[in-house]
Specification:
about 475 residues, alpha/beta, Aldehyde Dehydrogenase, Chain A, domain 1, single chain, Aldehyde Dehydrogenase, Chain A, domain 2, 7-stranded mixed sheet, 6-stranded mixed sheet
Length: about 475
C-alpha cells in the first residue's frame, strides 16, 4: 500500500514539502507507517486536478448508469478485499476486528452498492407553471467537493462521503483524519482499479490546521462536507464563508439521551444501553452517553448494567473474542481520563470502571457513573469514550425538556412497551435519529444527521443527494 504517498490525478506522489508523519497502532503504541504530510500546496494541486476533471473530464457528463457501474465495481473490490481492509482498520484505529468485520466493512460495501443503484435515479421534475411555458428542473452536480472525514469510522465515513458525491457526478478532494489515513489510502488504489477517471478522487492526508483548513477555505472548492467535532465544525464553516461562500454540510458532536422507562424489556434495554455507549470504545458521535433511568427500576437496571459492563472483554483488537479495543490515540485516552476525573470531582459516583484496562496501549475499562445531574460537566461535554452518565427520573413530566437540555441533537434512544409513549417521545425529542427499543441501527437508505449544534444536512439515503446537487429551473416559451 502506498501509505507514504498522496493521490492526485490518479498518480501517487510525495508531498510538496517532502514531509511525512507517523501513524500509530493504538493497541501497541508502535508505528504502523510513515504517511505523506499534505499541506496547502498539496491541497492546491488536488483541487486543480479535481477542477480539471470536473470541467473537462468525462465523469460529470458520463451516462449516469455508467457512473453507477463504476461504483458497483468499487463495492465489489471492497468486498473482495474486506478481510485485508478490516485488519488494516483495526490496526490503525484500535477497534475490535469483530466490529470491523461485522459492521464497518459490510456497511461500507452496502453504501457503495446503494449509491451505485441510485446514480441513474437522480432527476428533476416538470412543473405546471402559469402561462404558455414548459418549466422543468435539472439536478446537476455541485462541482468540486472537499470532504474531511473523522478517525472513528475511517473507511465507513469515506464511503458515506464518496458514495453520493460520485453518484451525482462531483469530483472530490478527500482529507482523512491524520490518526487514521491508511484505509482511505488503500481505498484510493481500489478507486483507480474500479475505473474512476483521473482527478475524480484525490486523497490528501495531513493535519487539520494545515491541509484541512486549506481545503475548507479553498476558493475553488464548491462544497465542503465535514464530520468531526462541533468546535472544528465552526472553524470549517467560517473558512467556507470567508473564502467563497461555498456550500457546507456538517455532522458534528452529540450527547444523546437514552431513556429507559419502567415498562421496558429490561434485559433488552441493558444490552441496548451497552451497545449505545461501549460500541467502538464509545468513540461514536451518536453514543447514548446520558442514560436516563426511571426511578422505580433504577437500582435493578444499574445492577444488571454494571454486570454487563464488567463482562465486556477488553483487549487485543485483533483477537476475534475482544469486544472493546483501544482508544484511537493517547490524546483521546488522556481526554477521557480527564473527564472521568472531573465527574468524580463534581460528585458523580463511579459505579464501575474509570481507569486503564491494560498496562500498554490506550485501553480503558467500560465506565458507568451514577447519581449524575444534567448540569455536570460529564453530562454536558461530549466525552467520546466508553463512559455512561446514569441520570434518574420520576414520571414523564419535564423529561423531554431534560433530554433536550443540551446543545446537541444528533440521536436519542427510547425503551418502552407503550407504543403511544414511544411515538410521543420520538416526536418531541430534538434529534436527527431516534431509536425505539434498539440502538445504533444504520442502513445506507436511511438518513443520518443532526439538529442544533450537531450540524446540518443529511448523509445516507436519497437525502444525501441534496448535499451534492444543484437544482436548475429551465423555462421554455411555447408561443
Amino acid at each position: 500500500m502506498r501509505s507514504g504517498k498522496i493521490l492526485i490525478d490518479n498518480e501517487w506522489c510525495d508531498a510538496v514539502s517532502g514531509k511525512t508523519f507517523a501513524v500509530t497502532n493504538p493497541a501497541t503504541e508502535e508505528t504502523l507507517a510513515q504517511v505523506a504530510e499534505g499541506d496547502r500546496e498539496d491541497i492546491n494541486r488536488a483541487v486543480l486536478a479535481a477542477r480539471k476533471a470536473f470541467e473537462g473530464g468525462p465523469w460529470a457528463r458520463m451516462n449516469a448508469r455508467d457512473r453507477g457501474r463504476v461504483l458497483m465495481r468499487l463495492a465489489n473490490l471492497v468486498d473482495k478485499h474486506k478481510e485485508e481492509l478490516a485488519r488494516l482498520e483495526t490496526q490503525n484505529n484500535g477497534k475490535p476486528i469483530a466490529e470491523t468485520t461485522a459492521a464497518d466493512l459490510p456497511l461500507t460495501i452496502e453504501t457503495f452498492e446503494y449509491y451505485a443503484g441510485l446514480a441513474d435515479k437522480i432527476h428533476g421534475d416538470t412543473i405546471p407553471v402559469s402561462g404558455n411555458f414548459l418549466n422543468y428542473t435539472l439536478r446537476e452536480p455541485a462541482g468540486v467537493v472537499g470532504q474531511i472525514i473523522p478517525w472513528n469510522f475511517p473507511l465507513l465515513m469515506a464511503a458515506w462521503k464518496l458514495g453520493p458525491a460520485l453518484a451525482t457526478g462531483c469530483t472530490v478532494v478527500l482529507k482523512p483524519a491524520e490518526q487514521t489515513p491508511l484505509t482511505a489510502l488503500r481505498l484510493g488504489e481500489l478507486l483507480i482499479e474500479a475505473g474512476v477517471p483521473k482527478g475524480v478522487v484525490n486523497i490528501v492526508p495531513g493535519y487539520g490546521p494545515t491541509a484541512g483548513a486549506a481545503l475548507a477555505g479553498h476558493p475553488d472548492v464548491d462544497k465542503i462536507a465535514f464530520t468531526g467535532s462541533t468546535e472544528v465544525g465552526r472553524i470549517v464553516m467560517r473558512l467556507a464563508a470567508e473564502s467563497n461562500l461555498k456550500r457546507v454540510s456538517l455532522e458534528l458532536g452529540g450527547k444523546a439521551p437514552n431513556i429507559v422507562f419502567a415498562d421496558a424489556d429490561l434485559d433488552a434495554a441493558v444490552l441496548g444501553a451497552g451497545r449505545g455507549i461501549f460500541f467502538n470504545q464509545g468513540e461514536v458521535c451518536c453514543a447514548g452517553s446520558r442514560l436516563f433511568i426511571e426511578d422505580s427500576i433504577h437500582d435493578k437496571f444499574l445492577a444488571k448494567f454494571k454486570d454487563h459492563a464488567e463482562k465486556i472483554v477488553v483487549g487485543d483488537p485483533m483477537n476475534p473474542a475482544t469486544q472493546m479495543g483501544a482508544q484511537v490515540s493517547k490524546e483521546q485516552y488522556d481526554k477521557i481520563l480527564g473527564l472521568i476525573k472531573k465527574g468524580k470531582e463534581e460528585g458523580a459516583k463511579l459505579l464501575t470502571g474509570g481507569g486503564p484496562a491494560k498496562d500498554k496501549g490506550y485501553f480503558l475499562k467500560p465506565t458507568i457513573f451514577q447519581g449524575v445531574r444534567n448540569d455536570m460537566t460529564i453530562a454536558r461535554e461530549e466525552i467520546f469514550g466508553p463512559v455512561t452518565c446514569a441520570i434518574p427520573f420520576k414520571g414523564t413530566e419535564g423529561l423531554v425538556a431534560q433530554a433536550n437540555d443540551t446543545i446537541y441533537g444528533l440521536s436519542a434512544g427510547v425503551w418502552t412497551r407503550d407504543i403511544a409513549k414511544a411515538h410521543r417521545f420520538a416526536r418531541d425529542i430534538k434529534a436527527g435519529t431516534v431509536w425505539v427499543n434498539c440502538y445504533n441501527c444504520f442502513d445506507a437508505s436511511s438518513p443520518f444527521g443532526g439538529f442544533k449544534q450537531s450540524g446540518f444536512g443529511r448523509e445516507l439515503g436519497k437525502y444525501a443527494l441534496e448535499l451534492y446537487t444543484q437544482v436548475k429551473s429551465v423555462w421554455v416559451a411555447l408561443d
